[in-house]
Design brief:
Chain A: It is a multi-pass membrane protein. Chain A: One of its GO terms (cellular component) is plasma membrane. Chain A: This is Branched-chain amino acid ABC transporter permease. Chain A: InterPro entries: ABC_transp_permease (IPR001851), LivM-like (IPR043428). The complex is a heterodimer. In chain A, helix 3 packs across helix 12 and helix 3 crosses helix 13. Chain A has two domains: 207 residues, no CATH class; 63 residues, no CATH class. The mean pLDDT of chain A is 87. Chain A is 71% helix and 3% strand. Chain A contains 16 helices and four strands. Chain B is α/β, with parallel strands linked by helices. In chain B, strands 6-7-8-3-9-10 form a six-stranded mixed sheet, sandwiched between helices. A four-stranded antiparallel sheet of chain B has the order 2-1-4-5, covered by helices on one side. Classes of the chains: A mainly alpha, B alpha/beta. At the A-B interface, helix 1, helix 8, helix 9 and helix 10 of A face helix 2, helix 3, helix 4, helix 5 and helix 6 of B.
């Protein structure tokens, strides 16, 4: 195990606590940079989605993970970013301008959502954000002069400084990766400065934060605005990746997917957003695989155990019917959330930390290390 | 004029008069203790000062400035810090970041500067850190810097809360039962720190306390409350012998 000997305050400020981090993140970056020349186009497309979902995940982590304000309305912020891009594109606005405009507009709307949210906590805040998402969805469907209603909008190929960037080109992937990396670095900077600490303070005790001079209302609105703006940036990339957007893409289910991203990844660290994004993007092909192959496999197993051809065929069609049921995806998501909250509340990144610690301390690892500690009574009445 | 003054302060919840027309003054550099039986309104007075509650009537002055209408977060900016009876720390953060939140009222950097972590932000962080280290040294918290609050014992948390309040470099500090839940030895340490805060850091202390040995050791003056009203005010010995105070504690 490595012991850090700190000799300077700088040691606690640095992004990479020691050289090991530089090496491992350097290798990761190198792998990501050569990925488009090695991986198949299908995997590359999935990787782009991982970048976009992870960006949204980082945005949601700022709000939910670090400021403690739950939101089920992030699909709406994504939609606002995407539609701003598509709309401004019609007037030949160049990419850098509408990219920034989408982020700014989404941030502004995020701040506006933040104001009514000041008086709400917990489940009531979740309901308020769901309502906001439903309102946005409805507006997108009805405001036909701008959004083209339910027919949706076509998004033209991205053009960056006169060069066209097709949505499945390596350049587009690099763009998404750059946005993700910049978002992560910006967020890390925020978290090691007074604003980030104020967010964490609000999450853990509003009363104490207030009595330490934190303007709780202002920082909650800031958190909403930053989180929404990041999601807006991701929305622009999302629109370009899909090349067509319509209101039914930005439903409650998408918001739930974003919550899953951070819940499964781990809500206490930015690593969680990336791990969760990989999980959610990769579960889709996995589900498709199950849908296509599972009936045949089960029928095959039944046949080996001596079922007749007719029975096996019957089983196969029954399983196939079940696998293509409407809403099965939502149900599977629900089960995943329940299982993670019950058995791995720290998420995938928490699991990784446990594994790492196990090998660092081998053979002295104690299972109780990550047990939740006793929490002393807080002054709930002072809220 | 007094350094800190509460005039005719009242807090009514419907018909219940938690604090009833209380007036008192704190002189610069003194340690004033508020004692009284349970429900006497001691913590309510603290919550009125730090604006968690809005007073029904009365005014509060600090350094000749009326702070009754100030928003809660401005109270800290004026130089009044507090601790809580039931510890209110940021559980899922390290001791260091808890203490750095105490520096919040001194932070001057803007959001966009922080996003880029400009050299000015870095320089500010180091200044904050240096002040925090002074408090860590003052309260002997060196072993706990990088520990999470959720893993620390109660006694240490109590000291960390005091440290967080000191990190804001307060002029007036409100201590809500600093010795509750501490053993005899820890209470002894606490009494030394409270006296050192006064003599070395020049902080004025207003404290609510039940432990009379601690009150006697550190206080310059004592106020006794019961049912939201002031029973007696004066030196620790005087107040303890006051017939109304004896009646309030022991029954007439």
């Amino acid at each position: 195990m490595r012991f850090l000997f700190k000799t300077d305050y700088e040691d606690d400020i640095k992004l990479f606590p020691h050289s090991g981090y530089v090496v491992s993140y350097g290798i990761l970056l190198a792998l990501l940079l050569i990925a488009p020349y090695v991986l198949s186009s299908y995997l590359m497309s999935q990787l782009v989605f991982v970048c976009i979902y992870a960006t949204v995940g980082v945005g949601l982590l700022i709000l939910t993970g670090f400021t403690g304000q739950a939101s089920l309305g992030h699909a709406a912020f994504l939609a606002i970013g995407a539609y701003t891009a598509a709309y401004l594109q019609k007037y030949n606005v160049p990419f850098p301008v509408y990219f920034l405009a989408a982020g700014a507009l989404t941030g502004l709307i995020g701040a506006m959502v933040g104001f009514p949210a000041l008086r709400l906590t917990g489940i009531y805040l979740v309901i308020a954000t769901i309502s906001f998402a439903l309102i946005v969805e409805e507006i997108l469907a009805r405001w036909e002069s701008v959004t083209n209603g339910n027919e949706g909008m076509r998004v033209k190929t991205l053009s960056l400084l006169g060069v066209t960037v097709p949505r499945d080109s390596p350049t587009f992937y690099f763009l998404c990766l750059a946005v993700l990396v910049l978002t992560i670095v910006g967020t890390l900077n925020l978290l090691r400065s007074p604003t980030g600490r104020a967010f964490v303070a609000i999450r853990d005790s509003e009363t104490a934060a207030r009595s330490m001079g934190v303007n709780v209302a202002l920082y909650k609105v800031k958190s909403f605005a930053i989180s929404a703006a990041i999601t807006g940036f991701a929305g622009v990339l999302f629109a370009h990746k899909l090349s067509f957007i319509s209101p039914e893409m930005f439903t409650l289910q998408l918001s739930i997917e974003f919550i899953i991203v951070i819940l499964i990844g781990g809500t206490f660290s930015l690593h969680g957003a990336v791990l969760g994004a990989i999980f959610i993007v990769m579960i889709d092909p996995f589900l498709t695989y199950l849908k296509d192959d599972l009936p045949g496999i089960i029928a095959g197993i039944a046949a080996t155990f001596g079922a007749g051809a007719a029975t096996a065929g019957n089983i196969q069609s029954k399983v196939a019917a079940f696998a293509s049921l409407n809403g099965l995806k939502g149900a599977i998501y629900g089960i995943i959330i329940v299982l993670f909250v019950l058995f791995e509340p720290l998420g995938l990144y928490g699991r990784w930390l446990k594994i790492k610690l196990f090998f660092q301390l081998f053979p002295l690892y104690k299972r109780a290390t990550f047990k939740r500690q006793k929490i002393y009574v807080k002054s709930e009445r002072n809220r | 004029m007094s350094y800190f003054r509460a005039e005719n302060l009242s807090l009514h919840f419907g018909g219940l008069k938690a604090v009833d027309a209380v007036s008192f003054a704190v002189e610069k550099g003194e340690i004033l203790s508020i004692i009284g039986p349970n429900g006497a309104g001691k913590s309510s007075i603290f919550n009125l000062i730090s604006r968690i509650y809005r007073p029904t009537t009365g005014r509060i002055f600090f350094e000749d400035q009326d702070i009754t209408e100030q928003p809660p977060y401005d109270i800290a900016r004026l130089g009044i810090a507090r601790t809580f009876q039931n510890i209110e720390l940021f559980e899922n953060a390290t001791v260091l970041s808890n203490l750095l939140v105490g520096r919040h009222r001194h932070s001057t950097t803007q959001l966009w500067q922080e996003l880029l972590f400009l050299p000015s932000v870095r320089a500010n962080e180091k200044v904050h850190r240096r002040r925090v280290e002074q408090v860590i040294e003052f309260l002997d918290l060196e072993p706990y810097r990088d520990k999470l609050i959720s893993g620390l014992p109660y006694g240490v948390r109590k000291v960390i809360e005091l440290a967080r309040a000191l990190c804001s470099e307060p002029k007036l500090i409100l201590l809500d039962e600093p010795s509750s839940g501490l053993n005899v030895e820890e209470t002894g340490d606490m009494s030394f720190w409270i006296r050192d805060m006064k003599s070395e850091l020049g902080v004025t202390v207003l404290m609510v306390e039940h432990d009379m040995s601690l009150v006697n050791r550190v206080s310059d003056r004592v106020i006794a409350l019961n049912y939201g009203r002031v029973l007696a005010m004066g030196s620790p010995a005087e107040v303890q012998q006051h017939p109304d105070v004896v009646a309030a504690y022991l029954g007439a």
